[in-house]
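Sat 14:20. Reprocessing the chain from the morning session after the first attempt stalled halfway. Input below, unchanged.
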Amino acid sequence: MKTGKNLDKEFPSVMDSAYKQYKHNLSRYKQANEIMTRTVFTINPEASMYEAAKIMGEKHIGSLIVTKYDTPVGIVTERDLLTKVLALEKNLKTEKIEKVMSYPLVSIGLTTKIKEAAKTMINQKGRLAVFDAGKLVGIVTASDLIRSLPEIHETEAKVDDFMTKKVITTDEKTSINTVAKIMGKKRIGSVIITKKGKPIGIFTERDLLTTILSKDKPLTTQVGKKASSPLITQSSGISIHKAAITMTIKHIRRLPIVKREQIIGIITARDLVEAYAK
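Finished this time. Tokens:
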């Protein structure tokens, strides 16, 4: 399964320049309050998953804090949508958030160190709600954390040791409904899309939210029409740190890894956080 051009070969000068800027910026990332997303979107537990999908898709976010009487009580994510609703063929418009959300919230403080935040995220398996004096003031995601990964021993580990080696692919003519069920049942956030056996793009849970559900597009649409393309890849043997730079620069959360023009794995933002947390 051959891939398109590798990012380093295609944009060497861009990557070099971005790398220098990235290293320059790292010095200011030390605590949760320096990397967290400060705008937190919320939803009522009695709202439907359809309403949640619309908000997440329109805002290009992967989660909503669930509040009751202005008090944070849980979180609902794009993964919940896939695994607990679509994969089980439940109705988005009738399924209530309170039946799907995760609770209690995994919380940290404003001054929590980046390393500790990474460990908490991996150990508690969830996004981090940031509180200050009992008040919710932000949220930290895996994407927020990889933007702050320092160049230290842990992040010099190779992506090959942390990537998922079984990569799921599907033909461009497969319906999005089928792809969503595959992702939900296998608990994965993306599928590589192929044309005549060759990879041409990637379809992610975020694509499902932003291009389909939030716009009320039919799930019968062929996935190739909504996949993100061209496919951005990196070479086998690169470091966790370099993978984090690539994801940050290209604003992606999943990076296929290639060797001799063949996809041999895929690494996610969460995988990078796990490597750093060890």
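The first strand starts at residue 42 and ends at 43.
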